[in-house]
Design a protein that fits this description.
single chain, alpha+beta, Peptide Deformylase, three-stranded antiparallel β-sheet, 3 helices
C-alpha cells in the first residue's frame, strides 16, 4: 500500500530509528511492501522507513530500469537493507546531486564517500555484504542517514548548489519531483 511520505519539518524525520529484532514477520513484510509501493509510486531511488513514519532501521533502494528522477544515474539493484552498517573503503569524497522525497522540489550537491562497504540483512534475516561505489554508494549513504535523523540538506556545504529542481534542471521529467 502506498503511504504518505513525511516532509522535512516533521520531527519523526529527525529521530534515531530502532533496530529490527525479528525477521520474516508479517509486520516486517508488510512494511517492505509499503516501502516499495510508496517508492515506486513516487519514482524514488530509495526510501527509508522513517519517511513513512516507521522508526525502524529499514531502507529500500534501487531500480531495475532507468530512474526518471536520476536519468543519468547507473542502475542500482533493487535492495532491502535492514540494520545496515556502513564502512568507507577509503577517504575519497565525491560531490553529487541529491534529492529526497521528503524534501520535494529541491536538489543539492552533497559530498559522500565514493567507495563503501555495507552490511546488513534482508527480509528473511540473511546477511548482505557488498562493496560499492559511485551512485550506488551515494544512495546507500543518503538512505541510511534517514535512520539517524539526517536529511541531505544538513550535509550541503555549498549553498550556491542547492535549489529548486525545475530551475536547476529545466529539462528533467516533471514527474521527477
Ligand atoms: Ni531521502
Amino acid at each position: 500500500m502506498k503511504r504518505e511520505i513525511l516532509r522535512m519539518g516533521d520531527p519523526r524525520l529527525l529521530a534515531v530509528a530502532e533496530p529490527v529484532r525479528e525477521f520474516n514477520t508479517p509486520g516486517l513484510l508488510a512494511l517492505l511492501d509499503d516501502l516499495f509501493d510508496t517508492m515506486h509510486g513516487a519514482n524514488g531511488a530509495g526510501l527509508a522507513a522513517p519517511q513513512i513514519g516507521v522508526g525502524l532501521r529499514v531502507v529500500v533502494f534501487g531500480y531495475a530500469q532507468q530512474n526518471v528522477r536520476y536519468p543519468e544515474a547507473p542502475l542500482v539493484p533493487e535492495t532491502v537493507l535492514i540494520n545496515p552498517v556502513l564502512e568507507r573503503l577509503d577517504d575519497t569524497l565525491e560531490d553529487g546531486w541529491e534529492g529526497c522525497l521528503s524534501v520535494p522540489g529541491l536538489r543539492g550537491v552533497v559530498p559522500r564517500f565514493a567507495r563503501l562497504r555495507y552490511t546488513g540483512f534482508d527480509a528473511g534475516g540473511a546477511a548482505i555484504d557488498r562493496a560499492v561505489e559511485g551512485f550506488h554508494a551515494r544512495v546507500v549513504q543518503h538512505e541510511c542517514d534517514h535512520l539517524d535523523g539526517i536529511l541531505y540538506p544538513m550535509r550541503v556545504q555549498d549553498f550556491t548548489r542547492f535549489g529548486f529542481t525545475e530551475v536547476l534542471f529545466p529539462g528533467l521529467d516533471p514527474s521527477a519531483d
